[in-house]
């Protein structure tokens, strides 16, 4: 039954306490050894979750790891005190790990040595099944009929000691994760989507680590207000200064200096402390401590030679923005319009978001530079080269090829 975990209109039952109570936090080698032995002796998949301190600390490291397995119960591990989970990873090497929104937690888990070889992503399963809400709380409520308390999701998990209420919340996040996995597995099988899901999960597990962004300072919020290369150079210099300070202090960069202050400095280019303090966002405690560094960064950006200024826009490695296609290549624009219609219809027919059927960027690239012979086989091969999963390429290629053939027959394509 697709997207069928309906609780029949009854109110969900609140899940208030872990079944075995709140376990103690494991914070030493002896406790970790006991967890490893217990989980190695357990059976079935292992539920895994991690809590970070996003918005509080620098980076995305894990500050608590939660595990649950049949026969082992729940474990809460402090990865600050136990930063090496390689032995646990080896003990669970052949075990499926169940995560919700796996891409969010996999990088911080990899930092401490916990790297799933097989996984099941309950959020992605929900997307493939067409659930309208795929957050963990919504999925547990819709599929299993329990409500989870989500009040501590944005807490500062670097806090020590962790409050009991937070530990309760953390334990409950893995309490029903395997049960949710089992229910969704059955729904995927019934909907004929299990193989799709397995391909997706395998791709997530085997994906290489993400490479650092080129010019990450360009993602400064409000940078659209910066109109010239000189001001962009100031954004870059202040951003990089803030990054160094934030890393040294182990603070989220936004807690050192807000993005709005960086953009305001680039726009107004202050030369004195008095001018700097006309920027409201510089009056916070952390920002005031480093006023000399901010002015030095602004001055450096202002004095750079033209050859050292960043380009207004980075050159892209893909096709131009789609709104320019009609003028530059009308046939490509026609292919794109047709392919988008096909993808939308297929996604609707299979009850899943179109972006989970195939990445929009793959479709744009395919339409801008199509195969010489746009047969289903050639389109499938090109989609696979771009990175589409086998099930995605197979499903999309036949319908796109038919649509383009009809357009050629009508003389809409050369």
TrEMBL record:
Top-level taxon: Bacteria
GO biological process, one term: nucleobase-containing compound metabolic process
HRDC domain mapped to chain residues: 228-308
CDD domains in the record: RNaseD_exo
Gene Ontology terms, MF aspect: 3'-5' exonuclease activity; nucleic acid binding; nucleotide binding
Region (Disordered) location: 1-23, 301-329
Entries under SUPFAM superfamilies matching the protein: HRDC-like, Ribonuclease H-like
Name of the protein in question: Ribonuclease D
């Amino acid at each position: 039954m697709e997207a069928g975990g309906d609780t029949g209109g009854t109110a969900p039952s609140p899940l208030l306490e872990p079944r075995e109570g709140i376990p103690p936090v494991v914070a030493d080698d002896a406790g970790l050894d006991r967890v490893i032995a217990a989980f190695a002796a357990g059976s079935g998949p292992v539920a895994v979750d991690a809590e970070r301190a996003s918005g509080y600390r620098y980076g995305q490291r894990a500050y608590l790891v939660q595990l649950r397995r049949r026969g082992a119960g729940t474990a809460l591990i402090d990865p600050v005190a136990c930063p090496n989970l390689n032995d646990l990873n080896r003990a669970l090497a052949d075990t499926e790990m169940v995560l919700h929104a796996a891409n969010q937690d996999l990088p911080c888990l990899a930092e401490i040595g916990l790297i799933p070889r097989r996984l099941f992503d309950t959020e992605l399963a929900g997307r493939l099944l067409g659930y309208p809400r795929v957050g963990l709380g919504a999925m547990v409520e819709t599929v299993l009929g329990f409500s989870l308390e989500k009040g501590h999701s944005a807490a500062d998990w670097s806090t020590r000691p962790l409050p009991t209420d937070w530990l309760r919340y953390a334990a409950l996040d893995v309490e029903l994760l395997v049960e949710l996995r089992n229910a969704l597995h059955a729904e995927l099988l019934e909907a004929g989507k299990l193989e799709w899901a397995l391909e997706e999960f395998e791709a997530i597990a085997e994906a290489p680590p993400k490479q650092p962004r080129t010019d990450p300072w360009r993602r400064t919020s409000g940078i659209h207000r910066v109109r010239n290369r000189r001001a962009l150079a100031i954004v870059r210099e202040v951003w990089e200064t803030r990054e160094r300070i934030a890393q040294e202090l182990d603070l989220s960069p936004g807690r050192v200096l807000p993005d709005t202050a960086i953009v305001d400095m680039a726009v107004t280019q202050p030369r004195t402390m008095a001018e700097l303090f006309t920027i409201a966002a510089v009056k916070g405690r952390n920002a005031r401590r480093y006023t000399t560094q901010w002015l030095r960064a602004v001055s450096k950006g202002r004095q750079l030679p033209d050859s050292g200024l960043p380009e207004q826009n980075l050159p892209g490695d893909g096709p131009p923005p789609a709104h320019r296609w009609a003028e530059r290549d009308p046939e490509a624009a026609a292919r794109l319009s047709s392919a988008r219609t096909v993808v939308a219809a297929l996604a609707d027919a299979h009850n899943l978001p179109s972006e989970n059927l195939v990445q929009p960027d793959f479709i744009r690239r395919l339409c801008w530079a199509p195969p010489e012979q746009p047969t289903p086989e050639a389109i499938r091969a090109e989609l696979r080269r771009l990175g589409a999963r086998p099930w995605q390429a197979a499903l999309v290629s036949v319908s796109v090829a038919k649509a383009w053939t009809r357009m050629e027959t009508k003389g809409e394509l050369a």
